[in-house]
Amino acid sequence: xxxxYLGADGAVTxxxxxxxxxxxxxxxxxxxxxxxxxxxxxxxxxxxxxxxxGGIFAVAGVLLIPFDIWAWRWVSLVVVLGIGFLLNAFANVxxxxxxxxxxxxPFVAQSLGxxxxxxxxxxxxxxxxxxxHRIARAIPAIRRATPDWKSWTSPKFPMGTALAGAxxxxxxxxxxxxx
Length: 179
Fold this sequence. Notes:
By secondary structure, the chain is mainly α. It has one domain (14-176). 73% of the residues lie in helices and 0% in strands. The protein has seven helices and no strands. It has helices spanning 14-42, 47-64, 67-90, 95-104, 112-137, 140-145, 160-176. α5 packs across α7.
């Protein structure tokens, strides 16, 4: 176990939780930025980014949180992936978005409060990302700097921007020990 704040008996302290989430935040930030850029430029979330996010939880998670908690969090991935496939089939949610949400799910602690927090963050980020995207695509200087970005002309919204923002915000809140 690499988390210096876990008790000798495996007790999870608030400091251990903050340390684990800080590590997750640092490790996930580059992947999330990659997802945002990719979704804005080509309207696709690469499978390698999804696998990288899952790999971060697989390796860092087992080193930072107790094994039983780590193992149970994989159930979240399966549940969210199933819901994502249904949304892809019946509600026109992108497959990459569904896979990214599933890979992000194990990072969210399994409690009603954490689920509510993650849904509120996703809702806020969906609104924020939508409005910022629409504003940015209306600014000629930004369009000239990124003329080949597909999201500027696509009728679809690059939802990976909101998913990545929500994940990073959740990790930052947990790292700060606020909730």
